[in-house]
Amino acid sequence: MIDEHMPVFIGSGLRLAVPIIFAATGEMLSERAGVLNLSLDGMMLMSAFTAALASWATGSPLIGVAAGVLVATAVAGAQAVLSVTLRANQLVVGIGFNILALGSTTFLYREIFGPLSRDPIPGFAQLNLPWLVHIPVIGPALANQTGLAYVSILMVVVTWLILKYTSFGLAVRAVGEDPRAADKAGISVARTRYLGVLYAGILAGLGGAFMSVADSNTFTENMTKGAGYLAITAVIFGGWNPWYTLAACLLFGFATALQFLVPALQLDVPVALLLLLPYLLALVAIAGFVGKSRQPSALTIPFERGG
Amino acid sequence: MALLELSGLTKRFGAFTALDDISLLIERGEVHCLLGENGAGKSTLCNLVFGVHRPDAGTMTLGGEPFDPRGPAEALQRGVVMVHQHFSLVPNMTVAENLMLGRASAVLKPQDIIVRMEQLAAEYGLEIDPEARIDELSVGERQRVEIIKCLLGDPQLLVLDEPTAVLQPDEIDALLAICRQVALRGKSVILVTHKLGEISRVADRTTVLRQGRIIETVAMEGADIRSLVRSMVGRDVQSAGSVLAAAVDIEGKTPAKSSSVGPTSPGEAVLQISDLVYRDPHGVPRLDGLSLTVGTGEIVGIAGVEGNGQSELGLILAGLAAPSAGAIVVGGTQVTGCTPQEITDAGVGIVPEDRHAVACIKELSVAENLYLGAIGKFSRFGLLDKSARRKAAETMMRDFDVRASSPDVSMASLSGGNQQKAVLARELSLDPLVFLLAAQPTRGLDVGAIEAVYNRIRAARDDGLGVLLISSELEELMAVSDRIAVIYRGKLVGELAAGSFSREAIGAMMSGHAHV
Question: How many CA atoms lie within 13 A of B101 on its CB side?
Fold first, then answer.
């Protein structure tokens, strides 16, 4: 019986992990540069809404994704201005954006979609990649994903390559660890951090857009349900390493997917408890692992040039 | 033609004029020393040349072209490089990564850097493992990485801001040799220092700065060190014979023992350390059965290469670390593993090694810092009597010559010397007080302040205090101590009494060749 449910469980686990993978991967790079975007969830939510709106208005999910990414990047830009240029407290700024995102998307959703909330939103089809289907057990689950899901894994690889093999990645690591040293080496701390935050914005935008136009083909109020916070947790859990962060995201995805698997197996576990599981896991992860891995030394500390 | 020409440079920070109408020529292939007390404007001058700050007035030319760097990047482009007092290395990255930082093209090519490092190693003798992580390197090695970083781009001008303050004697020798090598290849070197001994060993010319002005520029051939000191401090340094001797120490000869000799035979033991063992949080043994006695009215110096346990000994005596085994008794009271408050109550004054992190709170006022441990003294019914504290602080500042415009200014606004005097004032005003620990008490201070600190420590000894002086400056230990014990790998390996101090003997013991 478990065999027939396994592909569905794996498929939905991966699907649920994708937005977190996007957001966490971008956030990881931004944090390596020293900026914590607590506004990640807000970026995702704004993107999810904008993508839904643009896709519905134009009929093209691709335009939807582009619009979502654009809006999330704009939020990231604002976050960067406040936390890099104006040296505002990064946590406070992030919380502010999250509240703004929740309020504005809820309001606009009711204003624009209120009577039409049943209308389906044009979304992406699953690719059904033939060369993946034949892998035993996980094959069908891997093959039946939308294109964006594969892009999320690609972004992990790209981010890893950036950090390890490019001078921009070296600058990011230096700026997050010792901005003074980076400055003295002739690197613009502000520019590097702006790019880091914008990178996080683009990826959070992809994650948010995935939720509305690739996963559920609809928008609902507060549809991220804290995925941005889970992503931030995954970065800590993953010790600021792209691959471990990816593993943490998958763990959160599968933990969320349990809420579908467990009732299907007719196990007597309250669904409410399962809904809680990823968040509980996040709490345990932070409590148990944050001491082991060392965060970038300059994380959340604004840089000011001194003599 | 001169490489760098400064004319009429002025720099103000608010109402404070850091540099006032500075005009100076730096020739090609010369080592030019900038000498001056803290706050004389040496670092500011370097920062202008390196583009960290921009002048309020005046102009610079480099190689005949106008030179007005808007930031370090522009200075680097023009071939001006700088080794800062505080290293600019990212601790959790490798040497190669640090060297690539800020100068690599889009995709990193570590192999290119390694080849270049091999060239520099051959040319200047600057050898280092490219794959080593910075936080695994010693201070001297880190500085070597800084210098390699500077030389990578084949610069015209190398600026070194107090490079020897953190180095051991042999590392200083190596550094000065590198400076000469650099100058021999036609590049210019600006070396900031307040150690006179170095100047006479390496400089072609020396410029003395005081209060933001140039006092004189002299060629070092046949120059009189004493007159340089006078220019630097603006007065005759009275009774500073030992400071001067220690600072000059041209031939490496033993400086004369200070004239103010303490009681010939110390009194009863005031500090007794027996079989002290300490393992750091990683389980590495730092102190390995150290035993030491300090009597009343005696200054005992601890000599040793940094990292042999002297820092940990200081932390344990201050109550900031708990020993793994052993006992510490102060004036008959057991203080092993006691809290800092209990240790203070037992009559121990502490001048900690890290002035900024441990000894004072820079954001608080001088008065608040002076009475940090005695807040209750000025508290009535739970309310703070600020005016009483202010008055008391003023008296203490007068007694200890702490120069600040008022007790209410922040500690951060004081010079290093005055901060240290304030710390000494606080610790020496404790009651009861039977023992003083002074760990690296003159680190980063200028000659005038060093003299004041020495006099305070000697006066405390003459008042019957036992003093333990931990210092990485051999000259300082020989000038002030009545007895020098040498620490090596967490143990005392030998001891010398005043009168029989010799650099060679102490140096041998410091490197583990014990012969008592």
Answer: 36
